[in-house]
């Protein structure tokens, strides 16, 4: 006898681009391009165990819903748009018990033409993405996470690594000057002060956009200015600074690959010295993760 212990389904990779026109001049525009995933849980067991499709809200319907809501609502405030989608599925289908929404936003930025940001031309600023995840359940669970992904950084000095554990397996040489490179994956979990009732107002007041901008700036600034003792120490400092930006942030998580660049050995060529040419090692890479929360003894 087999038993279904868990299930979830929905649509992934639903993509759209939406234009926002300035009411005073429709040629002044903004765009948002996103990939959305919506997954549903609920009374769907018979569709797996009895081949009874009657409870299934087709994933095609899920896709249509995302696209129609993109047209009729404002997806530019991504956290609020995630909540609009979750609210829809919970309100429309009694047998849905929870909804997971993931939104990944590409970075289209206006660029300078004749020293002025062009009205409607954009450049894709690298692979960087803004992300948000919302889990909402019918019984009132509300867990919102926002973040940055795939922000690739490199510094050519101002990073060290020494004083680590050494044993008979250790070959790494300590250094006080190395290249540091990573793809930033940073996310922050919002506290239960954010609810389905106040998320719209908080979005309109700029909380999520401002926090995203601050978290990005903290990441970039600390990466550049700190003489990093290790990835671990730098990511902890970044997370601690982000926590300070809003009392509504409960925790901050960083996951950083340590992308290695190895100095090439040219001594075989007339004993040529080299401290300039490096090999970007595709693998393996270090992978370092930490979650930082507020000290429960502190006030904020
Ligand atoms: O910042 C670092 N942290 C490590 O844990 C580690 N391990 C390693 O080989 N190099 C580095 N660098």
From TrEMBL:
<feature type="binding site">
    <location>
        <position position="178"/>
    </location>
    <ligand>
        <name>urate</name>
    </ligand>
</feature>
<keyword id="KW-0560">Oxidoreductase</keyword>
<feature type="binding site">
    <location>
        <position position="258"/>
    </location>
    <ligand>
        <name>urate</name>
    </ligand>
</feature>
<dbReference type="GO" id="GO:0019628">
    <property type="term" value="P:urate catabolic process"/>
</dbReference>
<keyword id="KW-0659">Purine metabolism</keyword>
<comment type="function">
    <text>Catalyzes the oxidation of uric acid to 5-hydroxyisourate, which is further processed to form (S)-allantoin.</text>
</comment>
<feature type="binding site">
    <location>
        <position position="232"/>
    </location>
    <ligand>
        <name>5-hydroxyisourate</name>
    </ligand>
</feature>
<feature type="binding site">
    <location>
        <position position="161"/>
    </location>
    <ligand>
        <name>urate</name>
    </ligand>
</feature>
<feature type="active site" description="Charge relay system">
    <location>
        <position position="260"/>
    </location>
</feature>
<feature type="binding site">
    <location>
        <position position="60"/>
    </location>
    <ligand>
        <name>urate</name>
    </ligand>
</feature>
<feature type="binding site">
    <location>
        <position position="161"/>
    </location>
    <ligand>
        <name>5-hydroxyisourate</name>
    </ligand>
</feature>
<feature type="binding site">
    <location>
        <position position="60"/>
    </location>
    <ligand>
        <name>5-hydroxyisourate</name>
    </ligand>
</feature>
<feature type="active site" description="Charge relay system">
    <location>
        <position position="59"/>
    </location>
</feature>
<comment type="pathway">
    <text>Purine metabolism; urate degradation; (S)-allantoin from urate: step 1/3.</text>
</comment>
<dbReference type="GO" id="GO:0004846">
    <property type="term" value="F:urate oxidase activity"/>
</dbReference>
<feature type="binding site">
    <location>
        <position position="231"/>
    </location>
    <ligand>
        <name>5-hydroxyisourate</name>
    </ligand>
</feature>
<comment type="similarity">
    <text>Belongs to the uricase family.</text>
</comment>
<feature type="binding site">
    <location>
        <position position="258"/>
    </location>
    <ligand>
        <name>O2</name>
    </ligand>
</feature>
<dbReference type="InterPro" id="IPR019842">
    <property type="entry name" value="Uricase_CS"/>
</dbReference>
<feature type="binding site">
    <location>
        <position position="178"/>
    </location>
    <ligand>
        <name>5-hydroxyisourate</name>
    </ligand>
</feature>
<feature type="binding site">
    <location>
        <position position="231"/>
    </location>
    <ligand>
        <name>urate</name>
    </ligand>
</feature>
<dbReference type="GO" id="GO:0006145">
    <property type="term" value="P:purine nucleobase catabolic process"/>
</dbReference>
<protein>
    <recommendedName>
        <fullName>Uricase</fullName>
        <ecNumber>1.7.3.3</ecNumber>
    </recommendedName>
</protein>
<dbReference type="InterPro" id="IPR002042">
    <property type="entry name" value="Uricase"/>
</dbReference>
<dbReference type="Pfam" id="PF01014">
    <property type="entry name" value="Uricase"/>
</dbReference>
<feature type="binding site">
    <location>
        <position position="258"/>
    </location>
    <ligand>
        <name>5-hydroxyisourate</name>
    </ligand>
</feature>
<keyword id="KW-0576">Peroxisome</keyword>
<dbReference type="GO" id="GO:0005777">
    <property type="term" value="C:peroxisome"/>
</dbReference>
<feature type="binding site">
    <location>
        <position position="232"/>
    </location>
    <ligand>
        <name>urate</name>
    </ligand>
</feature>
<feature type="active site" description="Charge relay system">
    <location>
        <position position="11"/>
    </location>
</feature>
<feature type="binding site">
    <location>
        <position position="59"/>
    </location>
    <ligand>
        <name>urate</name>
    </ligand>
</feature>
């Amino acid at each position: 006898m087999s038993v279904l212990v868990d299930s979830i389904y929905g649509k992934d990779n639903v993509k759209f681009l939406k234009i926002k026109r300035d009411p005073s001049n429709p040629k002044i525009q903004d765009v948002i391009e996103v990939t959305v995933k919506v997954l549903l849980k609920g009374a769907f067991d018979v569709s797996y165990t009895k081949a009874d499709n009657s409870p299934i809200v087709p994933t095609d319907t899920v896709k249509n819903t995302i696209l129609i809501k993109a047209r009729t609502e404002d997806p530019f405030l991504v956290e609020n748009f995630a909540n609009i989608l979750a609210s829809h599925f919970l309100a429309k289908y009694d047998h849905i018990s929870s909804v997971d929404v993931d939104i990944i936003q590409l970075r289209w930025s206006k660029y300078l033409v004749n020293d002025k940001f062009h009205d409607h031309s954009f450049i894709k600023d690298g692979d960087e993405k803004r992300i948000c995840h919302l889990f909402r359940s019918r019984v009132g669970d509300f867990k919102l996470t926002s973040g940055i992904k795939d922000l690739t950084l490199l510094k050519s000095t101002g990073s060290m690594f020494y004083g680590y554990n050494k044993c008979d397996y250790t070959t790494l040489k300590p250094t006080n000057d190395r290249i540091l490179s990573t793809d930033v994956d940073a996310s922050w979990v919002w506290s239960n002060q954010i609810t389905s009732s106040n998320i719209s107002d908080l979005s309109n007041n700029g909380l999520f956009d401002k926090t995203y901008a601050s978290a990005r700036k903290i990441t970039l600034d600390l990466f550049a200015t700190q003489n990093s003792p290790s990835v671990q120490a730098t990511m902890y400092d970044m997370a601690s600074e982000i926590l300070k930006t809003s009392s509504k942030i409960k925790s901050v998580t960083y996951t950083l690959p340590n992308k290695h660049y190895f100095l090439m050995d040219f001594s075989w060529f007339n004993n040529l010295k080299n401290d300039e040419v490096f090999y970007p090692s595709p693998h393996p890479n270090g992978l370092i993760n930490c979650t930082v929360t507020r000290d429960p003894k502190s006030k904020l």
